[in-house]
Amino acid sequence: MNDTISSALRGSVVEDDIELTIVELCRACRTSEHEIELWVVEGVLQPRGESRESWRFGGDALARIRVATRLTRDLDLNAPGVALALDLLDRIAELESRLVR
Amino acid sequence: MKYKDYYETLGVPRTATQDEIKQAYRKLARKYHPDVSKLADAEARFKEINEANEVLKDPEKRTAYDQMGSNWKAGQDFQPPPNWDAGFEFRGGQGSPFGAGGTFGAGADFDPSDFFETLFGRRGAGPSAGRRRTSAQGEDHHAKVLIDVEDAYRGAERTISLRAPVEGPDGRVQMQERTLDVHIPKGIRPGQHLRLAGQGNAGIGGGKPGDLYLEIAFNPHSRFRVDGADVYVDLPLAPWEAALGASVDVPTPDGTVQLTVPKGSSAGRKLRLKGRGLPGKNPGDLYAVLAIVVPKAETDAARAAYESLANAFPNFQPRPNS
Asked: Across the interface, do B26 and A10 touch by the CB < 8 Å criterion?
């Protein structure tokens, strides 16, 4: 199905096909490089590369940073608070997926 | 337009102090934050809470809101009295909302109601003074797309509508709706994002347009459960099928397949169909989760069948440890 040529736009799957720079992430998630650096220090994100300029983030960083940005803004959390919340959300997701199985 | 009772939304009296308002907001924000809460109406509730806080946390907006009186009831038809905002720093109404550099603290996702916009204006709807002559890349845009599990097996197309600010020739920014046909690739998984380069908001002053990010979510399915790339389906069996083994039809999102149930299978056992989960470079697996359905003993023949079953297993211990 849908193998015929159509005019529909084709995108890239962020989590599978894309690596993002800190600049792209800032723009996509409307956050600052400083904030992303703080989350890297907390271990929320693990980019490849040595320096900030050469950092490359896996596509799954996008969803993580979006949540981190919203939690920071809406609940006034600091970076360690965001890291803790994300760890707990990961655990909840893991437990929920066990319920599915 | 309906009146909104922001005090009621935050659950505080009209006499609440700024600290009490902050406390009430924080408590509700933690409870209904869409990233944290699993409540079905979390997103809508959080929007209301955020909007109420946006007004009540700001002493000036709060005073202006209070001036409209306390006789209004939530949901009542409402028009703001003429010149209700006279003497305030912010300028309300459609003609003169906040421009760039407005004082909204709720961030880019803040999506105010008509009631709020009429009173306090809409961010970004005014002339973008100071930014007008510079060139800047358009903002990235985010939207969510709901698909069915079958769509992820076959690929699909979706028409999506986006509302985005567009700058007119006079430099005024207006919200415009546009629609896009988007191909959803085969093998996409729940929670993944599609990036459509250049389909975000228009650039300013010749700047490049931003990108569009689409978050993919799956509609709940009555039969199939998706976990990453793996798909689970319950497979009910008759007791004799589980005991003696059987070849049964299993529904998959991609059509029915035949599965051999080994003899002596118990309920809860998972039979894996390798590679029959979501397709892709690393395709997922499909798991048939066995359940045993016991027919009711409603006829003499059925009762006799159960009795002879019991007689055939005199030493069977369903509860070995009790």
From this structure: no
pTM score: 0.79
A100 to B106: CB separation less than 8 angstroms, yes or no = no
Contact across the interface for A11 and B182, Cβ inside 8 Å: yes
Ordered domains of chain B (ranges, CATH): 6-120 (1.10.287.110), 141-218 (2.60.260.20), 224-312 (2.60.260.20)
pLDDT < 70 positions in chain A:
1-5
Distance from CA of A49 to the nearest CA of B (A): 23
Q: Do A100 and B30 touch (CB under 8 A)?
A: no
Tokens of B89: 């720093």
The band of B106, judged by pLDDT with boundaries at 50, 70 and 90, is very low
Q: Side-chain half-sphere of A24: how many Cα atoms within 13 Å?
A: 19
> Hey, what domains does chain A have and what are their CATH numbers?
14-100 (1.10.1660.10)
Give φ, ψ of A81 to 5 degrees: -65, -40
pLDDT tens string B266-302: 999 999 999 999 999 899 999 999 999 999 999 999 9
Please indicate whether, in this complex, the C-beta atoms of B50 and A62 are within 8 angstroms of each other.
Answer: no
**A67 interaction partners in chain B (CB closer than 8 Å):** 35
- Nearest-neighbour CA in chain A from B72: distance (Å): 28
Please spell the DSSP secondary structure of B56-67, one letter per residue: HTSHHHHHHHHH
Report the C-alpha gap between B253 and B261 in whole angstroms.
Answer: 20
Are B291 and B236 in contact by the 8 Å Cβ rule? The answer is yes
Residue range B44-59: mean pLDDT, rounded: 93
Phi, psi torsion values for B195, nearest 5 degrees: -105, 125
Mean of all residue pLDDT scores within chain B:
85
DSSP letter for A48, please. Answer: B
Q: Nearest CA to CA, how far is A13 from chain B (Å)?
A: 5
Chain B: residue whose CA lies nearest to A6: B183
- Supply the pLDDT for residue B137: 83
Count the neighbouring beta carbons within 10 Å of the beta carbon of residue B121. 24
Side chain identity at B170, as an amino acid letter? D
CB contact under 8 A, B155 and A8: no
Q: Give the count of alpha carbons within 13 A of B210, CB side only.
A: 23
Report whether pLDDT(B39) > 50: yes
Beta-carbon pairs below 8 A across chains A and B: 111
Instruction: Mention every residue, 6+ apart, whose C-beta is less than 8 A from residue B235.
Output: B248, B250, B259, B261, B271, B288, B289, B290, B291
